[in-house]
Design brief:
Layout lengths: L1 H5 L4 H12 L6 E5 L6 H14 L7 H12 L6 E4 L8 H12 L8 E6 L6 H12 L5 E7 L7 H4 L3 E4 L5 H12 L3 H11 L3 H9 L3 H12 L4 H14 L4 H19 L13 H7 L5 H19 L4 H12 L13
Length: 336
């Protein structure tokens, strides 16, 4: 089942939450942290299901199934899910959650609020949430989902129990991809490496047909001639497919990371692009570590600039063309 796979590698955390229900020590607020695609939503949903299954005794299977069905479809009257509207979570959304928590529980037991992308809350929304956290009421649980606790107000974090999702081992993800998607061993290991321990991200790469962009990106790096023209052609292609930009830039960043690892003589298993080992060995001495680090930094700056509405095509042109010669990097993030 997909929901079970979503929690692969996080089973111990779910067991911990189920135990809290069993011994009646459920916290009023939880902060679930982890990278995108790490399973935060899946864990929040599984915990919610466990809470409502405790309402019905084992003999009342139909009652449990009713709760599970309503939670799965997003229609449970005692479960509220808050997500960013556009790029932010705003104060009126948190006030709506407060209003819902002020109402009597429909099922007569738990009320659950899940705030996805909690790090996107405006200052006003965060302060409004703080009031809700300071005044816990009965059987109410709030789950905040964020990539990192450092992105939230310390006063909010201090009122939450922290549940930190850990990366899933690369080989475990690779085995899953081979079994579920029928990909080759080599491709599975590369995708697992690009996913960086997040199963959801690995699935997005396959299901979103993103893996083809890896070959296009590495063709620019590995080319012996006409690299500049190939780089500009790649920028033009990505400008027409903006949904592939973040993945392609991640491919470049992991490539330069691999070059540094090879230069340092690290174990091959640590590499993302293991199937390009001859090219990595040949290119690992072209530049020094500082230049590789500078390239990775500029890639991140470019993505940040694009996300902040910089001129997408100009930013990509500048970044890709300069990747042909790392010593020529300028501040791509200044392109507007």
């Amino acid at each position: 089942m997909k929901e079970v796979n979503d929690l692969m590698g996080q089973e111990a955390l779910l067991d911990r939450l189920r135990h809290a229900i069993k011994v009646n020590k459920v916290a009023h607020a939880y902060l679930i942290t982890g990278e995108a695609g790490s399973g935060k939503r899946a864990l929040a949903r599984a915990f919610t299901e466990a809470l409502f299954c405790e309402i019905e005794p084992e003999s009342e299977k139909q009652g449990q199934m009713d709760h599970l069905r309503l939670i799965e479809t997003g229609n449970h009257p005692d479960v509220a899910i808050v997500e960013p509207e556009g790029a932010r979570i705003r104060i009126d959304q948190i006030r709506g959650l407060q209003d819902k928590f002020a109402l009597r529980s429909y099922a007569g037991y738990w009320k659950v609020g899940i705030i996805a992308g909690a790090e996107t809350m405006t200052a006003a929304a965060a302060n409004s949430l703080l009031k809700l956290l300071e005044e816990p009421s009965g059987k109410a649980v709030i789950m905040l989902l964020a990539e990192s606790q450092s992105q939230l107000l310390p006063t909010i974090v201090s009122r939450c129990q922290i549940i930190a999702l850990k990366p899933v081992p690369k080989k475990q993800i690779a085995v899953y991809l081979q079994k579920e998607y029928g990909v080759s061993v080599d491709a599975a290991l590369v995708i697992a490496g690009l996913a960086d321990g997040a199963l959801g991200r690995a699935r997005e790469i396959i299901e979103g047909d993103l893996f083809q962009w890896r070959e296009k990106a590495l063709a620019v790096i590995a080319a012996k001639r006409a690299q500049g023209l190939m780089a500009l052609d790649l920028a033009r292609s990505l400008d027409a497919e903006p949904g592939a930009i973040e993945f392609t830039l991640h491919v470049f960043a992991t490539w330069f990371r691999d070059l540094m690892l090879v230069a340092k003589g690290c174990d091959q298993d640590l590499l993302v692009h293991q199937d390009y080992l001859p090219e990595l060995l040949a290119g690992s001495s072209d530049y020094n570590v500082l230049e590789y680090q500078g390239a990775i930094r500029e890639i991140k700056d470019t993505l940040r600039a694009i996300n902040e509405n910089a001129n997408r095509r100009l930013a990509l042109d500048a970044l890709f063309y300069q990747m042909v010669d790392l010593s020529s990097f300028s501040k791509v993030s200044e392109v507007k």
